[in-house]
Amino acid sequence: MFTRMKNIDTAFRYVRGFTMLVIAGCVIICCYTLYRSFGSVAQMQDRVYILANGKALEAYASERKDNVPVEARDHVKTFHKLFFTLDPDDKVIKTNITKALYLADDSAKRIYDDLKENNFYSGIISGNISQTIQIDSVSIDVREYPYRFKCYARQNIIRTTSILKRSLLTEGALRNVSRSDNNPHGFLIERFNTVENKDLSAEARK
Fold it and tell me: From the CB of residue 195, how many other CB atoms can be counted at a distance below 10 Å?
């Protein structure tokens, strides 16, 4: 009888040990599955799908700090193209300037107000003058915040009888703001200043 009880007790210990092993294995498998699932979800969230010409293209999201120089340069280029591209049309001028002023603070607004007060834009319209800009390069210093920039560009001032070419060098700083439809890069230009704007050459139009 005692031998039978001993065998039952031994069998019970074996069954209990095996059950604990099974439970531990299930817990480990569940934890591993959850870990891999969260990793897969995080990886999928870093992917962006763009629909172009009826095809889904896969892109990858990244931290903003990885793209600061690229986005900052494009922000500066966009501002300059809007602010300095002018045609003899009051509506076009107002549209471009309004878009440009969303990208900069009151330092750019003061320049616009001074030019307007000096009848610069009226002269553009009355003289049928067009002004275009070509960005040569934009340097961004991301070592310190706000990020300092310099923009090197050339202007073409197209009159009825001639084309005047000018060099343009501007500088300023960029600080972070919220992204919006009017400011997709999330930067704001501060302390905008024209360092140099001088004539390079003039040629007669044929």
Answer: 11
Quick count: other Cβ atoms within 10 Å of Cβ 170? 24
Residue 182 is given by DSSP the state S
CB 47 within 8 A of CB 61: yes
CA distance 56 to 169: 41
C-alpha dihedral (138, 142, 145, 148), degrees to nearest 10 = -20
Nearest to 162 by CA among 120, 121, 122, 201: 201
What phi and psi values does residue 25 have, to the nearest 5 degrees?
A: -60, -40
pLDDT, tens digit (0-9, with 9 covering 90-100), for 134-154: 999 999 998 899 999 999 999
> Rounded distance, CA 18 to CA 12, Å?
10
